[in-house]
Amino acid sequence: MMVSANGGINQQRVAVCNAVAVARLLNATLVLPKLMYSSVWRDVSQFGDIYQEEHFINYLKPDIRIVKELPEELQSLDLEAIGSVVTDADVVKEAKPSFYLKYILPILHLNRVVHFVGFGNRLASDPIPYHLQRLRCRCNFHALQFVPKVQEIGALLIRRMRQNATQFGTLDHHLVGPFAESKLKGKRYHAHKASTRYLALHLRFEIDMVAHSLCDFGGGEEERRELEAYREVHFPALMEQKKTKKLPSPAALKSEGLCPLMPEETVLMLAALGFNRRTRIFLAGAHIYGGKSRMAALTTLFPNLVTKENLLSSSEIQPFMNFSSQLAALDFIGCTAADAFAMTDSGSQLSSLVSGFRVYYGGGKMPTIRPNKRRLADIFMKNNTIEWKVFETRVRKAIRQTKRVFSRPTGRSVYRYPRCDECMCNTDLSA
Question: Residues of the signal sequence (predicted)?
């Protein structure tokens, strides 16, 4: 079974874990997954540039057989001609195991090989056999370990966020392996130095998110023209919908909590939660829509806000430039290791994977701030006439309602909600 995973690094991670489960279901040997080149991400990185191949193969050996290449006798086959190429269009979203057994297994028996091209979110969360759900969990939280190159710079990034404290965090070893302890070497006499705490923030406000939302962000006619032009190129199906259907107005979308939080709104939320000018913030991602002017509110109130580009020297970050997936891996490490993690869009794949990782390894002590955008929208609409103390109380109440670590709801991703019998041995961790 071959898989070419599409999307960015986080979508590809989910695809790889799903592929492992499907290979086990079909009793197939899995060829080491390929990562598809995307015109959006423009990254030629392959699996071995991001994850440790040998660890991946050996860790999953009790569950499935994984090989690095297709056997020689199958390499000459024209897979498309013989019907062994299966695309996302051929597989329903959230397909059940029965779909694969009915439609894919016969192809595998007939041609001895099947190649999934795309393979995004193509395996259901429920109903699914216990051993397959457990295998997806093992793949995500154990089998996929970053290569030493990423781990080393990720450890450096964490260390600088903590201002070179000698303590290492709860999740560091799971993220950066042996490099979690490298900072202790030769510094035993400083072992008492406490770790500086920091907040990680994933501000999902890139142009693709902004344009696809169909919301209004106060930029007037110029903004509307710019976003409309972007949609014409990148979201033709959405543009077709706009022509044929009556879609909700920007105001209606906002009131329903369907618009991304703007940087200005994020500032208000964080300030209401008690974060202040002294707070050290690691900002994940890049290319915030609107650039420096849009970020001014954040950087003014939080002068200790930094990105990986600020933390690392040009020589340290140079090997990762032009490799967006490898840069995203550094963001994943910086966010997951943080003392607190705040997201502005709970639908983001990065935010989902980071929050799941923090639940799985955090022992109930790694808080994640997941705003209820509908509640916040109602509060923000009244912020011209509301007293700060009242505003602060309402924001904290809105955030508190999303604070608990829930057991995995039926049908929801095990990557985001690992607190279930198939994934975690102990599901009674305090929230």
Answer: none
pLDDT of residue 383: 60
- Is residue 228 domain-shared with residue 369, that is, in the same domain? no
Segments forming the whole domain that contains residue 228: 207-255
Residue 407 resides in a domain: no
Taking a C-beta distance cutoff of 8 angstroms, is the pair 34, 46 a contact? yes
Question: Structure pTM?
Answer: 0.92
Q: Which two tokens stand for residue 160?
A: 């600088």
Whether residue 298 is predicted with pLDDT greater than 90 in this model: the reply is: yes
Which domain-ending residue is among 143, 162, 194? Answer: 143
Q: State the pLDDT at residue 190.
A: 46
Other residues' Cβ atoms within 10 Å of the Cβ of residue 181: 13
CB atoms within 10 A of CB 232: 12
Q: Tens of pLDDT along 73-87?
A: 999 999 999 999 999
Q: How far lies 141's CA from each of 17, 99, 171, 187, 353, in Å?
A: 10, 26, 12, 31, 10
3-state secondary structure of 344: coil
**Looking at residues 126-142, what average pLDDT do you find?**
96
